[in-house]
Write a structure and sequence with these properties.
single chain, 4-stranded antiparallel beta sheet, 3-stranded antiparallel beta sheet, 7 strands
Length: about 110
């Protein structure tokens, strides 16, 4: 449960030994998900990306969040997501790649 990664909880610091239903993601028609070190990404059928956990590398200061649609990707139809150590990438239906995160070792490629 550290950094809000355990699905279905209201406190990012709660620990759960057994699976908990995630009410925040219900109704989103999820097709895939990826779990990183402190962050998780979920891809919905309609092409939106949902992120939760420790998103400090995306926000500039430590921040924990419950599942939230990434606003910068709303205007794109995302078909695949991947997550690495403090960075993530999304692929659009037009073959465009969006990346974000800390960018160590050139992994964000900006």
């Amino acid at each position: 449960g550290k950094h809000g990664k355990v699905l279905g909880i209201k406190s990012p610091f709660e620990k759960h030994v057994f699976p908990v239903k995630n009410n925040e993601l219900n109704g989103n028609d999820i097709i895939s998900f990826r779990g990183g070190v402190n962050t998780s990404l979920v891809l919905a059928k309609e092409g939106k990306v949902i992120m939760f956990g420790n998103i400090s590398y995306n926000q500039g200061s430590e921040k924990y969040c419950l599942p939230t649609v990434i606003p910068e990707l709303k205007q794109h139809f995302i078909v695949q997501v991947e997550i690495g150590f403090n960075f993530a990438m999304a692929l659009t239906n037009h073959g465009e790649i969006y990346s974000w995160g800390e960018g160590y070792y050139g992994n964000v490629c900006l």
